[in-house]
Write a structure and sequence with these properties.
CATH superfamily of the largest domain in chain A: Probable tRNA modification gtpase trme, domain 1
Order of helices and strands of chain B: EEEHEEEH
Radius of gyration of chain A: 18 Å
Number of strands of chain B: 6
CATH class of the largest domain in chain A: Alpha Beta
Oligomer: heterodimer
Distance between the termini of chain B: 23 Å
Mean pLDDT of chain B: 91
CATH architecture of the largest domain in chain A: 2-Layer Sandwich
Number of helices of chain A: 7
CATH topology of chain B: Folate-binding fold
Mean pLDDT of chain A: 91
Strand content of chain A: 25-35%
Radius of gyration of chain B: 15 Å
Number of domains of chain A: 2
CATH topology of the largest domain in chain A: Gyrase A, domain 2
CATH superfamily of chain B: Folate-binding superfamily
Shape of chain A: globular
Low-confidence stretches of chain B: none
Order of helices and strands of chain A: HHHEEHEEEHEEHEEEH
CATH architecture of chain B: 2-Layer Sandwich
Largest interface: A-B, 13 and 13 residues
Largest sheet of chain B: 4 strands, antiparallel
Largest sheet of chain A: 10 strands, antiparallel
Low-confidence stretches of chain A: none
Number of strands of chain A: 10
Chain lengths: 214, 101
């Protein structure tokens, strides 16, 4: 009965129309904070992505079942991601812990069903974190102002994601792409830290609007 | 600032970790058989080594796993890191390695 009710709730417009992203109140500031030009850097929020916490011992039947249901292999070591940022991706969080990130509305139902009674966990964590996207020629410089992890391209290339800190905020940092106009990063702070993380980034971005001080 | 190498995540800044005290303190086989003094000994008494010390750390800001490290309490140099459950590396071999450098 409860499941039926939940199904209905998902299908009708109600809750989806009522929800607010953790950064909805900063939409104007985020847009205004964009820096154009050679040293440009822009920020945007990608709200409501589906995020599913997965736990399974690598190599176990549970891991195989999850891989089959997700259609993406589980990453095997720190920093690694599998799949694609536009579609379904799986990020490595720990030796037996992963985060599946998928487009809005994907849900965790198929994964829960696939896991069945095998030892492991599938938890819908979509509301836990929001996603910020930082891109532009100065994106790495902005992050390096507050992230102690090594972000140099020789160790942190496209498709790398780590759990680390940005300023004082624990975040998932994920480089989704690299082009002639710099790198694109996704920063996933917890919802309750999102306001601070976004303001921290906007503040860090302001200096790149001015010419470089030699 | 210490650059600590997590056995799962690699080198990360000390701020991502929390300290867990002396490693390899075994839980008593049968706590009910202990005298108050022995129990207090287990709970509160720890070595205060000058030199190599095996201690527990947790990578709170990363993979959230506990692991052990051998640290020189004089120089703060991390001599070895190893996963929880693995045996402690021999201190003699660690000091010889240091001397060979």
């Amino acid at each position: 009965m409860a499941e039926q009710l939940m199904e209905q709730n998902v299908n009708i417009q109600g809750p989806a129309a009522l929800r607010r992203s953790p950064l909805a109140h900063l939409a104007g500031a985020i847009e205004a904070g964009a820096v154009a030009g050679e040293r440009g850097v822009t920020l945007r929020e990608i709200p409501f992505l589906t995020m599913v916490g997965l736990r399974a011992q690598p190599g176990s039947a549970a891991a195989a079942a999850l891989e089959k249901a997700a259609g993406v292999a589980l990453p095997t070591k720190v920093g690694q991601t599998t799949g694609s940022a536009e579609g379904t991706a799986v990020l490595w969080l720990g030796p037996d812990e992963y985060l599946l990130v998928a487009p809005e509305g994907t849900g965790a139902g198929a994964l829960t069903e696939a896991l069945g009674d095998e030892p492991g966990a599938v938890v819908d964590l979509s509301a836990n974190r929001t996603t910020l996207e930082l891109s532009g020629p100065s994106a790495r410089l902005v992050l390096e102002k507050g992230c102690n992890a090594d972000l140099h391209p020789r160790v942190f290339g496209p498709g790398t994601a780590i759990t680390t800190q940005l300023g004082p905020v624990p975040v998932l940092l994920w480089q989704t792409g690299e082009g002639p106009s710099g790198q694109t990063y996704r920063i996933l702070p917890r919802a309750s830290f999102a306001d601070y993380a976004a303001r921290w980034l906007l503040d860090a971005m302001t200096e790149f609007a001015a010419p470089e001080v030699p | 600032m210490i650059l600590l190498e997590c056995p799962y995540c690699g080198p990360r800044d000390e701020t991502e970790y929390h300290y867990g005290g002396q490693a390899h303190v075994a839980y008593p086989e049968d706590p009910n058989q202990l005298t108050d003094q022995e129990w207090a000994q287990y709970l509160f008494y720890r070595d205060n080594t000058k030199g190599l010390f095996a201690e527990r750390w947790v990578h709170t800001g990363g993979c959230r796993r506990w692991f052990n490290a051998v640290r020189d309490t004089v120089t703060y140099e991390i001599k070895a890191v190893y996963r929880a459950g693995e045996p402690r590396p021999d201190f003699d071999s660690l000091t010889q390695e240091g001397a060979a450098k």
